[in-house]
Amino acid sequence: MKILVLNGPNLNMLGVREPALYGNRTYADLVRFIEASARDAGVEVEVFQSNHEGALVDRIQSARGAFDALVVNAAAYTHTSVAILDALKAAGLPAVEVHLTDPGRRERFRHISFVKPAALATFAGMGFGSYSRAIRYLAERFRRG
Questions:
Q1: N or C end of the chain: smaller count of CB under 10 Å?
Q2: Among 22, 77, 131, 137, which one carries the catalytic annotation?
Q3: What is the pLDDT at residue 22?
Q4: pTM score, whole prediction
Q5: Catalytic site residue 22?
Q6: Catalytic residue (choose from 27, 77, 79, 99)
Q7: If one looks up domain 2-144 in CATH, what number appears?
Q8: Max Cα–Cα distance, the chain, nearest Å
């Protein structure tokens, strides 16, 4: 199984951006965590991050036929991007939404997710652990057929 993990805007600023909310670990730490989680689950993973909506849409579209599933942290685009939703639907791949924090416990505008209608599940509020939960969920689902 091969999973594409997509990370949206400002995740490259982990460790700098609001450490009281997101912690002190960096984006490089997150990538290493994701890669280790994939190894533990027995799957391959590729990680992609962009601050640009169109780049994320392009990467989702190019995943079709190259990956078996997607893990998506669209970050701020979660709450604004119909384009990412449409790309996820068009790609037709199983997708899981993840968030480091719990958007439902944050500002009201963060309660809306445009990713959710295209996702099989959402894991949020567990920090880096949200990613490992998503990877395990997809790996188990893939093994069951």
A1: C
A2: 22
A3: 79
A4: 0.94
A5: yes
A6: 99
A7: 3.40.50.9100
A8: 41
